[in-house]
Amino acid sequence: PLKANPVDGNYCLTCGSDKSLKLWNPHKGTLLRTYHGHGYEVLDAAGSFDNSQLCSCSADKTVALWDVATGQVVRKFRGHAGKVSCVQFNEEATVIVSGSIDSTVRCWDCRSRRPDPVQVLDEAKDGVSSVKVSDHEILSGSVDGRVRRYDLRAGQLYSDYVGSPITSVCFSKDGQCVLAASLDSTLRLLDKDTGELLGEYTGHRSTTYKLDCVLSEQDTHVGSASEDGKVYFWDLVEVSRGLTKTAEPGEGILRHPQAHPGRGCDPRPPTCSRWRMLSARRSKTTRVRSSLPEMMSRSSVARDSTALACGLWLLTRVWAAAEAA
Amino acid sequence: MAAESSDSEEEDLVSYGSALPALQEGERIKKPVPLQEQTVKDGKGRYQRFHGAFTGGFSAGYFNTVGTKEGWTPSSFISSRQKRADKTILGPEDFMDEEDLSEFGIAPKDITTTDDFASKAKDRIKEKARQIAGVVAAIPGTTAFDDLIGPSKITIGVELLRKMGWKEGQGIGPRIKRKPLRQKPDPQVKVYGCALPPGLSEGSEDEEDEYQPENVTFAPKDVMPVDLTPKEDVHGLGYKGLDPTQALFGISGREHLNLFTGGSEKTSDLLGDLRHSKGRKLGITGQAFGVGALEEEDDDIYATETLSKYDTVLKDEEPGDGLYGWTAPKQYKSKKRFETEVKYIGKILDGFSLASKSSTYPPPDLPRDYRPVHYFRPVIAAGNENYHLRKALEQSTGKLENDTTQQSRHTLNASQRRDRLGETVLKGPAPSVLEYLSEKDRERLKEVKQASEQQMKVKMLPQQSQNRFQPTSANDAPHKWQMFLGGQLANAGSSDFKPFARNPEKQKRYESFVQSLKQGQKDMLEHYLDPSMTEWERGREQEEFFRAAMFYKSSNSTLSSRFTRAKYEDDVDKVEVPRDQENDIDDKESAVKMKMFGKLTRDKFEWHPEKLLCKRFNVPDPYPDSSIVGLPKVKRDKYSVFNFLTLPEATTSVTQATNERIQQNNNLNSKLKPSRWDVSDKEKEKKDSISEFISLARSKVDIQQQPPVPMTEECGTETNETLPSEVGTWLCLNLKGNGTFFFLQKKKQKKHKNKGKHKNKKSEKESSSDTEDSSDSLSDMDTTENLLKRSQILQWITRT
């Protein structure tokens, strides 16, 4: 999996089955730091708002909190009964929210030294595949086909039935919608308040793997990885028009596209043609060669002007759309 | 110069002094000693200089220089590694000559009273000086602590006085009875002469109101030394100058300068004392122009005096007072001062105002027999051997304090402490330690303690007999048992102790048995036993009942009295399940198919976040009063079909594991590591055993009709992960073994308007008749319990 740094996009973070996390500079393609400490493959990682801490989760059933500068594990949270598939910081990096195959979402306290989770959200009937945190909500997608939104402020649990196992969920940047990707090769944009379907995005293939979906920084585009090795982008509103593919076919499966947060100041949103240019590799391409031989996953980071992907071809790619334009 | 040459001439001359000796012949006239050679030397031949005005002068150093004869060579200079020059602390005396230390020197060494013999009675002057210094100091009040640090030396005189019974603040002399009320001078009788000092008259006034018991004597009043300072100034009698503290210490800036009260006497007194103690004159003698330029305390000299601080109008003068003005007699002044004292000087908060009426409260009503005399009751410990003292005390106070209330808490036992703390008494009988002892020990104890034997016997008897008890026959047993149980069964059976809850009939029999046992109907005991049992069985059951009753008694009285009952009983038949459940998946399935997201697909639950989590998220706790975390839970029957339907967790892992294994096998040759979401086509074809079971069941039911669409799809495509929940929704039961299957749904059946689309009508009817009434369904569940278990077992068998 690959994560862009949530603050400015100046770093990107990869983790994989070599049990390590790697911090990269996506612009120069240099490896900044490697974090060792997990016993099995690292399934997800996230960075704190101030770039000072990382959290990661692994198939060794643990969730780890890292200090970026020293590279040491600050805390290790044990308690999940199975592989921990997803992890997120909350807004102030005081709580780590992790979802596991054991069908629970656990909230870990980073402040205190207590070993137990603050709260266990065990409403899911099956493994939790994806979890996201907003300022007052925890969003979890589960294989039981439900998107659950725990609203801490209202003290309510909203459970939306999608049917097909959910692989990835994410909030829209305006906080009004929820995007859910499921194994029926469909992305659904649901209204957060009512649960109504606002948009459905199809065309990619997602039936087997846990592929990520993403909304662009300004909620203009919906992106998803696909099993045909491409990254798909849709225009958020005009679904039929906006289908775009990127990445080279035949190079493997893309799993973790990531919206690039930072410099979203480009007034002109990317158009389809611009994405095509990307796919045609007219843009400047930086290759971040990963040293891991069996890095299984690849992600893409899509921003207004930058796309980033890592995948089965053991490469992390960064496209600079602005250069192309 | 008187001439003695002729008497006649000299008679009228006056001569002074002695005449100079006549000059010798040929003698030269002495030259006068020049001024620079006129020196004065001391006894040791040292030159004296006229520096000291009256002490004969002194010289310092070498010819009044600071040096010595040797110059500046220090005589005590030692330079060596081993010996270092002693560090001498030089005091002023080291630079003084002997004359300085003599009687008239600057540091005379004469005999003075040492500290040990100085009176430690509080020096009023010093006290006041200290008080003032405390007010003036940078940190007010610090000097007050000097008293605390000061050495506690008591002079011999004070010590002696104390031994004689004197206490500080008392006067010296024999204890006196209070004098009868002193007559107030008759106002009509004119008294001439000086008024009494205010201190004396006030003191007498204080005594007037006091209640005076007969046998109480008082120490004489401490006599304050009368200030006999003669009046040396030319001011009028009673003249008091401007209060210099206001000018000096900056109080005037804060306070309204009241020119007309004449200043407070206290502060002027204090300052007078301060003046003495500091050994210098402040130079304030009553003129209104406070501080001289040479005074040190001229900090506030540039403080701006505004006219607003002064009264521009003579106000607050009552008509009668106009006669007196500011030189009013004391009565008027004191009245005024009282008023000002009541006033609140501090800053009044915005929105508040001073109360116009000062509310006064009446003194409390005293009980009729109240005597304002405190009797000391010295506490003598009960164990004290001083018998006579105790006796005397008993007589004097009428009460000997050997109460347990006065004992230290360590000597109390638990029950005494409990009584004192007001805790409730334990329900069970106080257990004796003997009950926990072995028989031998008890035997031994018995021999040792003859006195408590009787009491012990009662308690030991049932236990001994219990140990030795051998069931001989059913007929003997009741008598024996009843003898022992007798009164102990008083509350047995009344509570919810149910040893035979599993077997309701037996329990019923047991309860009636206990009832009869309590009532003493030993003959009736056997009536409650099951007549269909054999003799031996009956005997056994009877014994069992006895034992149960016994057990209940012992556990109830000794153990359960020590422990509080658990709030939630360990009810094995009940299980906590979430109150609200996500359900009606088939409804939602159809809604999803029709893309009718929204209300149909959404479930909304009350969810309680942990308080800490809210704190970490900077979100107010939505349910600040609730202790629930997560979804609210309710208790349901454990062996209810509904609960089984909602607890698929146990089966998840198994199916998952098997699936993963299969997946691994399937994907051995493929390079990609499959994820757990991966469902290969092969697997889709291979149906899980449970789904097979279900589909088989369904096919039996739905012979004529189409099988439910969502069901088949679920069974076909999502066998691996989602299956357990599917099993949860659909469960087929062969209720009466007649071949009809019932499809039970998790929740209350909704009236499906779209009949026949998803469900079999026939089965729906029957299932609704089963589940519509929850109580009916529950009773059904009890009967179908075994069936359920069987179906579960079937599942497990087919899986493995």
TrEMBL record, chain A:
Question: What Pfam families would the database entry show?
Answer: WD40
Primary localization:
cytoplasm
Task: Spell out the residue ranges making up region: Disordered.
Answer: 248-268
- A Gene Ontology term for the protein's cellular component: cytoplasm
Return the WD repeat spans. Answer: 35-76, 77-109
Places the protein is found:
Cytoplasm
The answer to whether UniProt assigns keyword Signal to this entry is: no
Q: Which UniProt keywords apply?
A: Cytoplasm, Repeat, WD repeat
| One Gene Ontology term from the biological process aspect of the record | mRNA splicing, via spliceosome
Per its UniProt record, what SUPFAM superfamilies does this chain match?
A: WD40 repeat-like
Q: Which Gene3D superfamilies match?
A: YVTN repeat-like/Quinoprotein amine dehydrogenase
Family, as annotated: Belongs to the WD repeat MORG1 family.
Q: What is this protein called?
A: WD repeat domain-containing protein 83
This chain's source organism reads Apteryx owenii
From TrEMBL, chain B:
Compositionally skewed regions (Basic residues) per UniProt: 746-762
Domain G-patch, chain residue ranges per copy: 153-173
Instruction: Name the segments for region: Disordered.
Output: 396-417, 665-684, 746-784
Q: Where is the composition biased (Basic and acidic residues)?
A: 675-684
Bias category Polar residues: which stretches? 396-415
Instruction: Say which family it is in.
Output: Belongs to the GPATCH1 family.
Q: What is this protein called?
A: G-patch domain containing 1
Q: Which organism is it from?
A: Apteryx owenii
